[in-house]
Structure formats: structure tokens, C-alpha cells
What we know:
This protein has 14 helices and 15 strands. The chain has helices spanning 23-33, 55-64, 78-89, 107-119, 134-142, 162-167, 191-204, 227-230, 266-278, 284-295, 300-304, 309-322, 352-363, 389-404, and strands spanning 39-40, 102-105, 125-130, 146-153, 159-160, 173-179, 207-211, 236-241, 254-259, 327-328, 337-338, 341-342, 365-366, 368-369, 381-384. It has an eight-stranded mixed sheet with strand order 2-9-8-7-6-3-4-5. It has a three-stranded antiparallel sheet with strand order 11-15-14. Strands 1-13 form a two-stranded parallel ribbon. β6 (173-179), α7 and β7 form a beta-alpha-beta unit. α3 (78-89) runs parallel beside α10 (284-295), α4 runs parallel beside α5 and α4 packs across α9. The N and C termini lie far apart (50 Å). 47% of the residues are buried.
Amino acid sequence: MSPLRPLDQSTKLKDVLYEIRGKALVEADRLEAEGHTILKLNTGNPAAFGFEAPYQIVRDMIEAVPHAHGYSDSRGIMSARRAVVYRYEQDESFPAFEPDDVYLGNGVSELITMVMQALLDDGDEVLIPAPDYPLWTAMTSLGGGTPVHYVCDEQNGWQPDLEDIRAKVTPRTKAIVVINPNNPTGAVYSRDVLEGIAAIAREHSLLLLSDEIYDRILFDDAQHIPMASVAPDLLCLTFNGLSKTYRVAGYRSGWLVITGPKSHASGFLEGITLLASTRLCPNVPAQHAVQAALSGVQSIDALIGPAGRLHEQRDAAWEGLLAIPGVTCVKPAGALYAFPRFDPEVYDIRDDAKFVYDFLVAEHVLLVQGTGFNWATPDHVRIVTLPEARVLSEAVERLGNFLASYSQ
Length: 408
């Protein structure tokens, strides 16, 4: 028998990065297998930190299981899509749309993948924030496109830099990605910034892709403004789902809403429908969770209020980080993360992936390096703020103690 031909990964994966589940996680799993307890602050998985799924959602899924074993419509079941329509009808500023403008997906991740595959030809460019949720960059590359990162300004509360966006538009630019509230920074974008992004998209006839999965996880006086509401005259795709607000990440239940004019984009939209059909349909039992979630009691409200668990945990992480010399952190206004900066004049960190690995081995706490979110310099990490406040305070204190003597 002749030797087997070597099989390498596709060259399409050469620019695909997802450090949230990268090499440090492999070491964390190895340490756990040896019996060590690892505090994993790398993924926004509410279930891992004691957040229970709302009982109404679980009940409706259980009741649906006996008749949810067949395929559904490729867009998703009608009751769930109507529930999504109803959700946005409660916001008078959100443009009107129909159930046929809604696509359900196995989480927002699948829908992002479908959209990029339908949209991009080789060499097409997509403007993506830096720092970003890295799936956007990865799926742009995998779809044959070129991710072009625009800067979010830390000195301005991580708001997108409109002039940087404008300067990076080229004839190959097809879309602008907006992540609001932002992962990893926790920023919630102002109306002026959103209107500025819409103006750039309007000037250059660009598609708007708005990731709003954290739109109901807001703190203090933060207000979320949907991208579609400031750009009703533009084609805008809004992505959302149940993973974070309803703490059912494992159900993989997301949706995509299409608003604005469509006649100029019929081919692109037909492409989304084609790809929705090729995956046959979303996970049917999880689709039955959507109506219960969107029409029931919004339990997230108690968690984000001043006495709520998510609010207290955000405060514990942020206050603890500010107490560390040479560490600064913009106060997160939304989402489930903090993105602190380590002053390069104070800390000798030239490789932030090595720092994360070294901290894991020494303190058994797993973070994600800032460069894993396509941030250009090795001076940030992302911390998930889902553990109880006491646990977070201890983890941040350990981070400070580790930094005090750390050097590369």
C-alpha cells in the first residue's frame, strides 16, 4: 500500500482566528483533567456560572419535543418568526418588517456565516470594528473577503472612530459591521455615532450588519439604539438571539431581521434563502423557545438593575481592575465583559497570548488576550463578568498580584 497523502487544513483557514477557544483553553482543559480547578473567564456562557434558563422557555421546549422531530420551514417556524416581529414592533423607531424577513438560526454564529457566504466574492472588503468579536473577521475571511478593521477609540469610551471608518472605505467595500453593545469592550454606542455610521453607509451604498445580541444587557443609564432605527432607508441586517439575554446559550437559537429597501439586493437575499435551505432548517425544538422568551416576563431586567447580580458583578470587576496600579478600564455600559488595559510603561508584556498562558498556569484563571479580538497591540485582555462578585473580586486581586512581579 502506498503512503497516504498528507492532509493539511484548507488555505481558507489561514486568516481564521478564534482565540476565545484557543491554545490556552487546551492547557486549561489539561489542568482540569489533572484535578485542578480552573476559573474560565474566556467565554460568555451563563450556564457555567449558575444562571438558570427561565422556566417558561424550558417548559415550552419540553412540551414541543414530541412534535418537533421533523424539519421546519427553512426560515424557521412561523410562531417564532411572528414573535420576533412583535418584539421589534414594541420599538416605534424600528422599521416595519414581515415574518418572511426573519431567518432563525442555530445561534447568531450560523447566521453570520450564511450572510458572509451569500455576500462576498474574493477580495470584497468588510469594515469590522477593532477590537471585534472575532467570528466576524473569521467568517469574512472564510467567505473569501478581506476584513478591514476600523478603530474604536478607548479614550472616547470605545466609540467607533467615524473618520477612521470613512478613510478605510474603498471601491471593494461592501458592508460595515456594528457590534452594539460591544463585545469585548462593553461599550454602548451613542446616537451621534450610529447616525455617523449610517451616513457613511448611505454615501457609499454599503450594507449594514448590526450584531445586537446584548441589546437588553445594559447598565446604569445606558440606552441601546438599534442600527436599523437610524437607517430605515438602508438595507440593514440585525442579528440577535436567546443566548445571552435569556441565558440559554446551549439552545443555539438566534435570528436575523432584514429591514430597509430590498430591490437592489435581490440576488444577495436570494443567496441567504438558498443557504438557509441547504442547512434544511434550524434546530426545531429550540425554535419553540423563541415565542416563550419574547412574550414572557423579561427576567433580565432584575439582573441588570442596581441590585441585580449582573450589575454587581460588573462593578466588582471594574472596581477591582481600577485598584491595580498601571491598569485602566473603561466602565462597561453593557454586555458581559471588561476589557482592561495594561500600561506598557508599567508592565513588560510584548506577547499577550504568552501572558494569558502564564497567568493560567500560575493562578488557574483563564482570560483571553486582546489581540485575539483583532486589537493591534498586546496591552489588553478580556474578562468575562459572569461569576459571582466575590469570585470576580478574588480573580482580579490574583491578577493584580501576578502582574506585580511579572515580566517577559
